[in-house]
From TrEMBL:
NCBIfam families the UniProt entry points to: argS (TIGR00456)
Stored HAMAP family: Arg_tRNA_synth
Entry protein name: arginine--tRNA ligase
Alphabetized UniProt keyword annotations: Acetylation, Aminoacyl-tRNA synthetase, ATP-binding, Ligase, Nucleotide-binding, Protein biosynthesis
Organism: Vigna unguiculata
InterPro entries given in the database record: aa-tRNA-synth_I_CS, Arg-tRNA-ligase, Arg-tRNA-synth_N, Arg-tRNA-synth_N_sf, ArgRS_core, DALR_anticod-bd, Rossmann-like_a/b/a_fold, tRNAsynth_Ia_anticodon-bd
Biological classification of the source: Eukaryota, Viridiplantae, Streptophyta, Embryophyta, Tracheophyta
Keyword Aminoacyl-tRNA synthetase: yes
Domain DALR anticodon binding: 489-605
Record EC number: 6.1.1.19
Amino acid sequence: PVTKPQSTSTAVIEIDNPASVKRQLAQLFELSLRATVPDEPDVVPLVDACAVKGGVKFGDYQCNNAMGVWSKVKGKQTEFRGPPAIGQAIVNNLPPSEMIDSCSVAGPGFVNIVLSKKWIAQRVQRMLVDGIDAWAPRLPVKRALVDFSSPNIAKEMHVGHLRSTIIGDTLARMFEFSRVECVIRRNHVGDWGTQFGMLITYLFEKFTNPDDLSEAAIGDLQALYKASKVRFDSDPEFKLRAQQAVVRLQSGEIKYRKAWKQICDVSRAEFDKVYQRLGVQLEERGESFYNPYIPGVLEKLDNLGLIEESDGARVIYVEGVNIPVIAVKRDGGYNYFSTDLASLWYRLNEEKLEWIVYVTDIGQQQHFDMLFKAYRRAGWLPKDENAYPKCTHVGFGLVLGEDGKRFRTRSSEVVRLVDLLDEAKRRCRTSILERDTAKDWSEEEIEKTSEAIGYGAVKYADLKINRLTNYTFNFDQMLNDKGNTAVYLQYAHARICSIIRKSGRDIEEVKRNGKIVLDHEDERALGLHLLQFPEVFEEACTNLLPNLLCEYLYNLSEIFTKKFYSNCQVVGSSEETSRLLLCEATVIVMRHCFYLLGIEPVYRL
Ligand code: ARG
C-alpha cells in the first residue's frame, strides 16, 4: 500500500526555514541522492508529510524521488533494475541522523520515513525553552507593504472591505512573524473622486451658511451619500453644479477643500471604530496623497513611449490584453488607474518596498494585472514575476447571504460592519450568560470574552475558507461551538488552560525541570503535529493563504481532544509532567495561530 504525499507548495519564494521538519529531511535526502546518482545533479529531493489514508499512515514523511530518478537513468548503463531498487539505494545512502527512526520502501520506490519519537520530543521541548519565535522562518525581504481594507470615503464600508481588512491584517502579521523588518499596513482609502462633488454640493445646499457645516452636522455619511445621489440622478442642474464642484475642489478652492476634509474626518472616525474593535492597525494614505505625483509618472511613461492616444483618452497597452487601460480620461481627468500608477511609483521609489501586496476582491484582478504589466513594460518591475521588487494581488471571493446572493440586509441595504460585529458580540454574550461556569464572572470579563469570541468567530469564518472562493455569512454556523469554528477552538484552548491550572503545578517550573516523553502513540501524534507548524506556516506565508493556518489549528485541537486527551490521562497520572508539557506546547502553538489570525484567546470559559 502506498500513501500519497500532501500537496506541495507552488510558490517560488526562497525562504529560510530551519525549523521545518520537511526541509531538514530534504537536506538529508539531498545528500543521499547525490551519493545514489552522482551523475544526476539536477534531481532535487521531493519530501512531504504523509497524509492519512483509510485511517492508516505508512510513515510520517515520504520521499518521492525514485520514479523520477528512474525515468532519468533507465536508458543509461545503470546498476538499478527499477524504481524500488532506487528507493532502497536512497535509504541505504542516507547519512546517519537522530531524526529518523526507520525507513521503508513501498510500491514503486516511495520511501516512507518514520521519525524518532525521542527526536520529536526534544524538538518540542526546545520550543518550550526557546519560545515559538525560534520557529520563525525568514522571508528574503526587509520592507513589505500590505495594501488592505482601503474603503471609500462616504461610500459604504461593506463586507468586502471586512474581508480585505481581516485577510490583510493576517498577512501583515505573517510577514512580521517571518522577520520582515518593516511591514507597512497601508489603508489606501478612496478619499478622492467624483462622489465628492455631489456630496459637497448637497451639503452646501443644505447648509447655506458655511459656518453651520461641521462634522456633527454632516452626521450619517451613508444617508448623506444616498440623499445626494438621489439629487444627482434626478436633477440635471444639480448634476452640473456637482461636476463643477469637483473641478473647484481639485483646483484647491478653500471652501471646497474644507468641506472635503470634514467629510473625510467623519468617515475616518467611522472606520476607526471598526478597526478598533477588530484590533487592526492601519496607516492611512489615501488616493488624494498621490494626486501630485500623477503628472510626473505619466510623463515618465510617455517618455518611454508607453502612452498612446485613443479616442481622445491617453491609454497604455499591456502584454496579452487587447484593450488598453485608460491612464487619463477624455476630459483630462484622472481615474483609479492613474492613482495606482502613481502610488506604485511612490511605493517603489520613495518607500523602497520590496514586496507590495494588494488585498481586494477578485473583481479587481485585471486592474492589478494591467498595472503590474504596465510597470514591467516600463522596466520598473523585473520581467521575472518572482523576482524582487515584487507586486502581488491577493484576491478574494464574495461574501454571500443565505440566499446565495450578495450579502445584504433584509431591506437589501448594504450590511454595516459595526452592526455585524455588534450582533456577533450580542449572541456570544447571551450564550456566555447561559453558562453555569460564568456565574461568578465580572461584567468586564463577560464583555471582554464576548468580544474575543464574537469578533474572533467572524474573522475565523472568513479566514478558514480559501480566500479565492465565495463564502456564505452565517451567524449560527460561525458561532457554533462544534465543528471548525473559532468558538470551538476557543473552548479547546480554554479547556487545556484549565487542565494546566487544575494540576496545581507551576508550569514555568515544569518547563525548567520536566522532560517530554512520547511513549503513547497519541502523545507522539500530538508532538509530531506541533513540530509541523513551521512548514505549514511557510506554505501559508509563501502562498498568502491563511486558510492553511486555520486547517492546521483545527487539526491540532482535534488531535489534542480526540486522540491525546481522550486516551492519555494528564493530571494525576505517572506521566503528568511530560503530558503537562505537551499541553503547554499545544496552547503556545494555538495562541500563536490565534495571534496570526488576529484572534484574542480566551483563558477560561
Ligand atoms: N478603494 C478600493 C475599493 O474599495 C480599494 C483600493 C485598493 N488599493 C489600491 N491601491 N487600489 O475597491
